[in-house]
Specification:
Distance between the termini: 24 Å
Radius of gyration: 17 Å
Organism: Zhongshania aliphaticivorans
InterPro entries: Lon_prtase_N, Lon_prtase_N_sf, PUA-like_sf
Strand order of the largest sheet: 1-3-4-5-6
Largest sheet: 5 strands, mixed, barrel
CATH architecture of the largest domain: Roll
Protein name: Lon N-terminal domain-containing protein
Helix content: 25-40%
Number of domains: 2
Structural class: alpha+beta
Number of helices: 6
Number of strands: 6
């Protein structure tokens, strides 16, 4: 898991989700709450980023009156808007791509209910070449690339390093969010890939 080695503290608007965004991964979002419409507008206008954090303990993405506040995971991922469009139902759809990982020190809500996090960027280890034992996982990623949903996301799947392969598969496969979060929290690229292999073995047994 992450040793929490990190750099300078920054403030980052947060988008809590029931799924996990990994570095280099992409996901589509349907935007309808005013606080997030404003967030996306400001992000595109100012060419900035925001943070995606997993809602631990099964918190709701949209809080109803009287519901408790969300429990935000300790580690999150910087999100950049890669594409956007108006969906058939009239809502705003955006595709975000994961950037740097961060450690969430604290979070507060502004007047609109938007979470603002105090974060520090995690120090990343240099990625390493794919080991020979990763052949099947690499082939699986290429097969996923033929799926129409994956093609719409426009993810870069020509990966040749262990960490990138683990991140891409953990993003695209229908893993439990807790398993994807486990992958997100591992610093060493080979350890991340080995953990994914163990998770897939456990799910298939």
């Amino acid at each position: 898991m992450s040793d929490l080695g990190s750099s300078a503290v920054a403030e980052l608007p947060l988008f809590p989700l029931s799924t996990v965004l990994l570095p280099g991964g992409r996901m589509g979002l349907r935007i309808f709450e005013r606080r997030y419409l404003d967030l996306i507008r400001d992000t595109m206008r100012n060419q900035q980023s925001f943070g995606v954090v997993w809602l631990a303990e099964g918190g709701a993405e949209v809080l109803k009156p009287g519901e408790r506040q969300a429990t935000l995971a300790q580690i999150g991922t910087e999100a950049h808007i890669a594409d956007w469009d108006q969906l058939p139902d009239g809502l705003l759809g955006v595709v975000v791509e994961g950037g740097r990982r961060f450690q969430l020190a604290s979070a507060r809500q502004d007047d609109t209910g938007l979470y603002i996090g105090e974060v520090s960027w995690l120090t990343e280890q240099e990625d390493v070449a794919l080991p020979s034992r990763s052949t099947e996982l690499h082939e699986l990623l290429q097969q996923l690339g033929d799926h129409p949903h994956v093609q719409r996301l426009g993810m870069q799947l020509n990966v040749e390093t262990a960490g990138a392969l683990a991140n891409s598969l953990a993003q695209l496969l229908p893993l439990p969010a807790a398993d994807a979060y486990q992958i997100l929290g591992i610093d060493a690229p080979l350890a991340r890939l080995d953990a994914l292999h163990d998770i897939l073995d456990a799910l298939s047994s």
